[in-house]
Amino acid sequence: MSEALDSTIHAIDRLRTDLPRLLAEDDRVSLLRLLSSEHPSDIAEALESMDDEQLIQVFKVLLLADVATCAEILIELDPSYLPFLYSEFTHQEWAWIFKELSDDDVVFILDLFPEEARDILVNRLGRKDKQEVLELMTYPEESAGRMMTNEFLAVDQEATVGEVTRLIRSSLDFDQANLFFVYVTQDDKLVGMVSLRQLLLNQSRTKLKTFMRTDYNKVYVDNDQEEVADIVTRYDEVNVPVVDREGRILGIITVDDVIDVINEESEEDLFKGIGSSDEELIVKDDVVKIVKLRLPWILASFLGSLLVVFVMHMTEGGLGQEAAFFFVFVPMISAMGGNVGVQSATIMARYLSTSHVQWQEAKRSTLRELRVGLTLGTICGVLIGLVAWYWRGPILLLTILLAMMCTMTVSATTGTIVPVALKKLGFDPAISTGPFVTSLNDLVAICVYFSIVFTFRTPLGL
Question: What is the CA radius of gyration of the chain?
Answer without folding.
Answer: 30
